[in-house]
Amino acid sequence: MTSLDKPDIGTTSIKWRWPSVHPEGRKFVLLSAVICLIFALLAWETLAWPMAGITIWVAAFFRDPVRSTPTGEGLVIAPADGLVTMITTVPPPRELAGEDGLGDAPMTRVSIFMSVFDVHINRTPIAGTIKRVAYIAGSFLNADLDKASEENERQHFLVEGADGTRIGFTQIAGLVARRIVPFVKAGDVVGLGQRVGLIRFGSRVDVYLPAGTGHRVALGQRTIAGETVIARLGEADRSIGAAQ
User: Fold this and answer.
1) Which of the 8 DSSP states describes residue 165?
2) Nearest of 82, 58, 71 to residue 206 by alpha carbon
3) How far is residue 205's CA from residue 81's CA, in Å, rounded to a whole number?
4) Distance CA 239, CA 230 (A)
5) Is residue 239 flagged as an active site residue?
6) Which of these is catalytic: 115, 149, 203, 239?
7) Is the pTM of this model over 0.85?
8) 21-35, 67-81, 196-210 — which one is most confidently predicted on average?
9) Most buried among 112, 113, 159, 162, using CB within 10 Å?
10) CB neighbour list of residue 130: distance below 8 Å, 6 or more residues apart
11) Residue 169 · residue 110 · CB < 8 Å
């Protein structure tokens, strides 16, 4: 997987590079490219050109850019690229609730909606140990709807930090998404901003913040997975923000 080489001391710039295509998507790129080639060889230009565009789009969908994750005590990092569409207070999902999970008290949920044009590699919001991974089969409603959190196909993650703090986040399938792919399992140790999975073709990720932690993002703000700070543990100040 692509990595960002550390620059020499004194270096103040870095060259732009094309994002790599994640291995999970290479078979789809290859398939669409082969179909495009067949159309071209048959001189079916009216089909070959659109298929070429689809091939480029599929490659872009599965792009896996390098991210520079900020470091700092108690940071909670965005797990997904996309638009912050909901910030609300709700009980934790039953799959993550309980004494050995997030508890039962209401907590702040930040929902990030990913369009088909966003990067779909999801990352862990904190470093720690994956304590639980729970897959739930369900419907494929519009992921932007509030009830998608309870009715759509989804996958829950529970991560416990070194200090015992627990963060839950959920991958939710949408209208077009039909496959949630995890990269980790219970018991795995993950670093801050590490890749943990993807959802194919548009969806949403919910993050559940612990009590006493307020969000630092605003409705309508765009987040970058592995880079945008959405909260600092124990910091209750909330971002309000305004559309401009």
Assistant:
1) -
2) 82
3) 9
4) 9
5) no
6) 203
7) no
8) 67-81
9) 112
10) 157, 158, 159, 184, 185, 186, 187, 188, 189, 190, 196
11) no
